[in-house]
Amino acid sequence: MAQQSYISLKNISKQYPGVQALAGVDLDFLEGEVHAIVGENGAGKSTLIKIITGAIQADSGTLEIAGSTFTSYSPHDALFDLGIAAIYQEFNLVTSLTIADNIYLGKEIQQGPLLDYHQMNQASQEILARLGFSLDPGAVISDLSVAEQQIVEIAKALSHDVRLLIMDEPTAPLTPAEVSRLFELIAALKKEGVTIIYISHRLEEALSIADRITVLRDGHLIQTLRAEETNRRELISLMVGRKLGQEYPHRDNDHGEVLLEVNELTTSRVKDISFALHTGEILGIAGLVGSGRTEIARALFGIDPVLSGEVIVHGKKASICSPSEAMKLNIGLVPEDRKRSGILGKMSLRDNITFSIASRLASWFLIDRQVEDRIIGEYMDKLSIKASGKDQLVQYLSGGNQQKVVLSKLLASDCDILIFDEPTRGVDVGAKQEIYYLLDELARSGKGILMISSDLPELVSMADRIMVMNTGKIRGFIEKAEARQDLILDLASHEGR
Amino acid sequence: MVEKESQETMNKGKFNLSVTASSLRSYAISLVFLLLMVVFSLASPVFFRAENLFNVTRQVAMLGISAVGMTFVILAGGIDLSVGSLLSLVSVVCAKLMVEVGLCPTLAVTLTLVMCCGVGILNAFFINEINIPPLITTLGTMTILRGTSYVLSTGRHVWGFPDSFRFIGQGYLGPFPVPVIIMALIFLFGWIYLGRTPFGRWTYGIGNNEEATRLSGINIKKMKYLLYMLSSLMTGIAGIILLSRMSSGQPKVGTGYELEVVTAVVLGGVSIFGGEGKLLGVLFGVLIIGVLENGMILLNVSDYYQQIILGFVLLAAVGFDNKVSGRLKRNQ
Predict the structure, then answer these.
(1) Structural domains of chain B sorted by starting position, each given as residue range(s) with its CATH number in brackets
(2) Residue B17: its chain A contacts at CB < 8 A?
(3) pLDDT for A139-167, tens place per residue?
(4) Which residue of B has its CA nearest to A342?
(5) Which is deepest, B13, B53, B143, B179, by most CB within 10 Å?
(6) Which residue has the higher pLDDT, A233 or A312?
(7) C-alpha distance from B207 to closest chain A C-alpha (Å)
(8) Which domains does chain A possess?
């Protein structure tokens, strides 16, 4: 079937001070095509989306849409006249309003001066039904699951006559079952002739859902490939621009003594958690979102109160009521949500890296700048943090480098029980690999590591043992030798007892 | 010069944008200050004389001292509205300790400052342990302290201090008025605190991202006790200077003082949401208020108009700042 292109980018360039975000990109998106765009952070993906949705203007180049040529248009025109909508990772929903209110936000149906709730509800229900979902249009957004909220976002986009739908990391918050449902939905939209631009860090997904995949690197279009004619390794090497060595380090460690022992730990979110962590060990924790894996970390780190059970650190029974107490016991955490609870964005690299240990660097309350500089330099080298200098604000770093700063902050505090919650989420392929090697090195140096991750391939490759969580309880331990993704998924998604 | 500087930083790339924004912020505020100096010097022959300039700094010494404490609190994402009422309570309590209890000034001052620390601890207690937002907590203690001050004084003035007490508010060391020296020392302390100590870094951290700060193992509650205590303590010092200058303890002093202090801090480029700002800017903020008031008095502008103008200066300075740093942010 010869497809017509819905939108064609011609020689699009965009420059920011000091950075060429996009350099002469030519790209066609065909009608009814799912087109994935992949690339490392900073490759130009977001800039490209912003130009297509009209949020920003290209410095040069044109966009051809349905026969007309534009140099720029407003986001309003893009949505209302050109049928271009985008769904971002962070939803744009008013959480205190209902589904129908949100779908018709800004284009409310009125009867005289009053809102016509009946008609809006009915129309919303029709759109949702078209998507194959039966949600109550009167339900309040904050009562919905993340997956349902995403459906509402899609419904909101479809309430306009959308011809091009951009999805930015749509599967990040979803469970595997929800992901396959989303994929069915994408297939249905495609049949209706909607063009879909699909942005994802998860290459497996791009390969399975997309018709074509475009690789961007440093603002340049590297190549557009047909999904069935390429594979993960090829995509990675195109994204990184070099052959990547062994993605995961080879792990064969001897475990030493017990560092941390947890007996029948119970909080309001997890029940009867028992395990031991040894020196030199990487203990993986798998489970779906909400299964209680993060809550184990929160309990051990003194964020959530422990209701019963005991925690034994270095052979001594410990009661941990706050993060500062946890850190005194040499327990450290890299939190799941980097932006919300990891980085201090408006502060410098310097302030961030030595943040936890500032008091240790101080004599007579004054921080010793020389010692501090040395430590910061050490970590910037060791983790190869790319920044303009020690005083650069962390909010301007790429996701991978921000994560390295958070890791440095933890490592500087010299804890020996390290909890990593999603250590590689939203991180480039290259930086991911560096983090894997770092974790391995830490384990070799005798630390004990708890690694919580949704990325099953990484868990299977990195962890010496995997503890699988499901509805707040441990459903089983899987040794490295037997670790397979389907085995983990089976334990993790098995409903109740 | 500003333009050239910013041009240069722009050329270095996007990583320096924030630096540009924050240095522009300090530039903007110091430029406003210089502009005012020039205008008033041209308009009034008396303005630029040394004794008048000392006068200006002595006028703003109390404001400046409280502003340092307020800067700490605002940087950490809080606010302290109780400082105006505390000024009044300090004035009454310290006066009564000297006049009615008959304590020597040193002891009376020490006890009063201890009381101030208590007030700070009380503020932090409600914020930390009962989880009441700082705005409401300090709104509550503001009312309580004002009431206490009236109850203690039964609304009357308290006077008749030992002569030695005058030194703090009215004395000179060499050519320098004592209040100005105290203010300078407090600013020096604040500058070191914010720039060189772990506490300063954690203060910025709390305002920047409280959750991340807590998860970095910092004891946030302890920090808040410290911050609100410092704010109250500094206002205590300001109150004692005020008492010494007025030679009588009065419950009605300090009405609206808290907002004047907040104005100086915000004028100095400190973000009201916390996490961003420099103490040097606050010094300029304080001086601008002083110069503006002094200059307008010299020019016989009525008190009512002074308020209108001060309000416009605040909006203009912060508005300029938002536009400039806003534009830089959009350009990222």
Answers:
(1) 20-320 (1.10.3470)
(2) 17, 396
(3) 999 888 888 888 898 888 888 888 999 99
(4) B212
(5) B179
(6) A312
(7) 9
(8) 5-240 (3.40.50.300), 258-493 (3.40.50.300)
